[in-house]
C-alpha cells in the first residue's frame, strides 16, 4: 500500500517539477539607428506555440521555455530576416539589430499583401503606392481582392464601398460608405456634423455629384505622398474602432528622416506636385510636406475641374526614462479642395451659371504614449490623445432663372395663407452656403500583459467625441431663389444641437497552446451611448453593445516536397454599429407651397398673388443606429514564402439609413381668378373679392428612416509567389466573388399623376405598395493576375497586370404592379380591388411593368491589361510611367433574345501617365 502511494505521489509531482523548469527569453529589437522596431515577427522553429511579435517599444518576451536549444527567426517587412540560436538553461535577455542597408527583395510588394493579423485585412506599402502612382487614396482600392482599375477622373465624390460589386452602387444604400472609418495616425477623419446644405434648393447635378453628407469620407481629399502604409480591415476589427458598419482604413504616415523629395505627376486628367522633407533632431522627428493637384473632367473642358491643396507638419519627441519611454506626437494638417463648374462662354447662353464648392479642413492632433521598459511587467503601454478636426464647406452658386410662365414667388417663412408676389421674368440667383463642422475626439487606451492560466494581452479604453456645426447655413435673396419649386428656406446650422458620443471598450487577446498547435483568440466588447439628445429620440439614454470575436488556429508546421508548410484556420463574428449623424437626426424643415390665386391683369398695380405655405418637421425621433452582423471563415497557407489565403464572409444589415418619400394632405382655398373682372376694377382687389373653394391635395416630403436592407456574401482569395530567382519576378493572383442584395423594406407610397383630375381636383389619392421600388441582386466575379519584376541592381521595376471581370450580373427587385391599397384625400384607407383597375382614375396605380425589366442580366468577360514601369537612377531620381487599359477585351453577347453590342466609352480608352520623383 505504501509503495503504491509513493508511485502515485511521484506520478503527480514529477510533471509539476518538470513544469517548474521553464525559463524566459526576452529582449529588444532596434534598427541601425537604435530606434525600436515594432511588429517584428519572431518565429520559433518547430514550435509555433512560442511565436510572437515585438511591441511598439521593440520589446518581446517568450515565456515558459523548457530547457533546450532554440532557433529563432526575426522578420520585418522589407528587410532580410535574422536567425539566431539560443541555448536556454536560465532566463536570458538579448538584443537584435536590423541593418536597413540590406533590402529583402522578396518583401518588396507592388500589390496589396494579406496581413498576418487575426482579422481579415490588406496591407498596402509605400513601395506598392509608388509603383501604382495614385492621385488619391481612391486609386489604391484596385489592389484589394475584388478591386479593379477604374476611372481617374476626380469630378465627383469618391466614397468607399468595401466588398461591393461595382454595379451595385445605388442611391439609398450609402450606409456602406458612411460606415467605413478612416484613421490617419490614430486620428479619425469621419465627421458627425457634416450636414447636407443644399437639400430642397434644387441646385441640381453639379452639387449632386459632390455632396458628401451621407457618403462619409471623400477619398479624393486624401493624398498618398506622405503615407508609409495603409491597412484596410475588411473583416471584424478590434473593438477599439467604433461607430462603423463596414470596415476600417488605417493610414500611417512617414516619420523620421527623409531627404528633400519632390514628386511631379501628369496624366490624362490631372497634374500633381508634392514636396516633402523629414528631420531627425536628437530624439525629435520632424516631417513636413505640401502638395497640389489640379484635375479636369476633360482635357478639352477647362471650366469643370477639381483642385486639392494639402500640407502637413508632424513631430515626435522621445524621452527615455529609467522605467518608461515617453513619446509625444503632434501634428497640424491643412487640406483644401475646390470643386468648380461653369459654362463655356463661347458655347452656352447661360453666361452667368457657375458652381464653386470649396472645402477646407484643419486638423490638430496631440497624443502622449507611455511605454514600459520592462518586458516582463504587466503594464505594456498607454496612449492619451486629443484631436480636433475643423472644416469649412463653402458653396457659391450663380444661376440664371428664366421661368416660362407667370409664377408666384413662394418665400414665406410662416405657415398659413399669405399674400405673395410674382417672380421676375428673368434674374440671376446667387446662393452662398456656409457649413463649418467641428469634431473633437478624446481617447485613452492602455495595454497589459497578464499571465492567468494562459497569456492574455488585454486592451481597455474610453473614447469621447463631440460634434457641432458652426456654419451660418444658406444665404441668398429670398426674392431670387435658385429654383421656382424649392422646398426649403435658409437655416442657421449653428443652432443645431451638438452631438456627444461616449464609448468604453475592453478586449482580451489570449493564446492557448495544444502541443504544437497555437490557438489565438481576440474577444472584445464595446459599449457606447449618445449624449445631449432630446428625450423624444428613441436612442436617448440607450446603451448599445458590440461584441466581436476573432480566432485563428495555427496548425503544426509540416513538410511538403521538402519545404516547410505553415497554415492556419481563422474565423470571426462581430456586430458593428453606426450612429445616425446630425444630418439624419436634425433634418431641415420641409416647405410645401401651393398657389391659391394668381391674378395677373395687364395693369401691374392691380395684380394679386396668394398662396398657402405648409411647414412640416420631418425629424424621425424613432431613428435607430444601423447594425451590421458580420461573420467570416477562412484559411491561410505559407510554403516558404509562397502564400495563399481564401475566406468566405457574410454580412447582414437590415436597418440601413435611407430617404423615404411620404405624403401629407394639405388643405387650401382655390380661388377663381375669373370671379373678378380686371376691366372693371380701378384699384387692387383684395382676396375677399374672389370666390373660392376649399380643397386639399397630397404633397410629398422626405423623411430619414431605417429602411435599407443589405446582405453581402462572397469569397476573397489571394496567391502570392516568391520571387523567381534570376528574373526576380513575383506572380500575384487575387480576386473575389461578390454578391449583394439591396432591398427597401419600407412601404412605398405614390401619389396619383397630377395631370389626372378628379372632380376638378388633382393629387387626391396616394397608393401603398407592398414591395419597395428600389434594390436588387448584384453579383460579380473577378481575377487579377500581376507579374512584377524587381531588379535592384538596374534600379528597374516592371509590372504587367491582367484584370479579368469574368462576369457581372444584376436583377431588379420585383415589385407588385398593383398596390395593396390606397388613401383618399380624407385619409381613409381602401383596399385596391379588381373594380379599381377599371376606374378611370384609380386604374393608373397599376404600374404595368414590363416583365423583361425583372430578368437577370449578365455581362460576360471584361478583360483589360495594365503596364507600369519604374526606373531609379543613382537612388536619387525615380522615373515612372503607366498605361492603363492598354488592351481591352469586351465581346458582344446575346441574352434573352437580344444582341448586345458593347462599345468602348471614354472610361475604356487607354489611359497614360508619368511621374518624376527627385531626392536631394
From TrEMBL:
Chain segments annotated as transmembrane: none
Domain of life: Bacteria
Signal peptide: 1-20
Keywords of the record: Signal
InterPro entries membership: Carb-bd-like_fold, Plug_dom, Plug_dom_sf, TonB-dep_rcpt-like
Entry keyword Signal: yes
Residue span, TonB-dependent receptor plug domain: 119-247
Matches recorded under Pfam families: CarboxypepD_reg, Plug
Record PANTHER family: HEMOGLOBIN AND HEMOGLOBIN-HAPTOGLOBIN-BINDING PROTEIN 1-RELATED, TONB-DEPENDENT OUTER MEMBRANE RECEPTOR
Name of this chain's protein: Carboxypeptidase-like regulatory domain-containing protein
Organism: Sphingobacterium daejeonense
